[in-house]
Write a structure and sequence with these properties.
about 25% strand, Rossmann fold, alpha/beta, 10 strands, 6-stranded mixed sheet, 4-stranded antiparallel sheet
């Protein structure tokens, strides 16, 4: 059962993202306002081209809005510089990609530990890295794969490694962009259950999907069409007050 606290972790206020200039300008996202409850399994669903991945990039500070704002933990992301955002992501956000993004020349454990080197040095000493990496692999049922290279793992096993990597810096939120989109149906079911289970450890999980069946299993979420919210559930539109 997902744990959901009373307050929001992320607030989105009148968010718009446009590309191009003047008469060629195209609005990919149009005036979105919603919140992500802390501890929720939060879905962003919709067909291809609806703006899901663009929204995820804005929520993680990988992109900046044309107007509106994203408030994370009471602080507006737009106020940070690019370097500050990069350090912030390393500490507070774990990212899971559709195509795993594992480094092929590193073992599973080394892939997980690399994330500590990039973003976790202030949380865990170097002497703790191996223990921390193994603990995260065990958390997602992948400890037996620690010394294997990615090419020797199935798609589902690689995605477990990627989830362990996203957890290793103990972030507040895990974001996953179509995390089951490159998997067979059985592996997709297992990976989704693994992500959903993270909310029991008081993690907030935000995932993008075009699969309505997966979206229906979330505790809160929004559905997009042509850059606008067309449906929501679980308190997703309860916009927090500005700090």
């Amino acid at each position: 059962m997902a744990h959901v606290s009373a307050g929001p972790l992320i607030g989105v206020e009148h968010l718009t993202r446009s590309f191009g200039a003047r008469e060629q300008k195209v609005a990919v996202l149009n005036d979105l306002s919603f919140s992500v409850p802390s501890g929720s399994l939060f879905s962003i669903s919709g067909p291809s081209g609806s703006g899901k991945s663009t929204l995820l990039n804005l929520l993680t500070g990988l992109d900046r809005p044309t107007s509106g704002r994203v408030v994370f933990g009471g602080e507006e992301l737009r106020a940070r510089t690019e370097n500050q955002l990069a350090r912030w992501r390393g500490r507070h956000v774990g990212i899971v990609f559709q195509f795993f993004q594992l480094i092929p020349t590193l073992t599973a454990l080394e892939n997980v530990m690399l994330a500590l080197e990039l973003g976790g040095a202030d949380k865990f000493s170097r002497g703790q890295w191996r223990e921390r990496g193994m603990a995260c692999l065990a958390q997602v049922g992948a400890a037996d794969f620690a010394n294997r290279m990615p090419a020797k793992l199935s798609g589902g096993q690689q995605q477990r490694i990627a989830i362990a990597r996203s957890l290793v810096n103990d972030p507040a939120v895990i974001v996953a962009d179509e995390p089951t989109g490159n998997l067979d149906s059985r592996s997709a079911h297992d990976i989704f259950d693994t992500l959903a289970g993270l909310t029991d450890q008081r993690k907030t999980v935000v995932f993008v999907t075009h699969a309505t069946e997966l979206a229906s299993r979330s505790t809160a979420g929004i559905a997009l069409l042509d850059g606008r919210i067309v449906a929501q559930h679980g308190g997703a539109t309860a916009v927090p007050q500005s700090p």
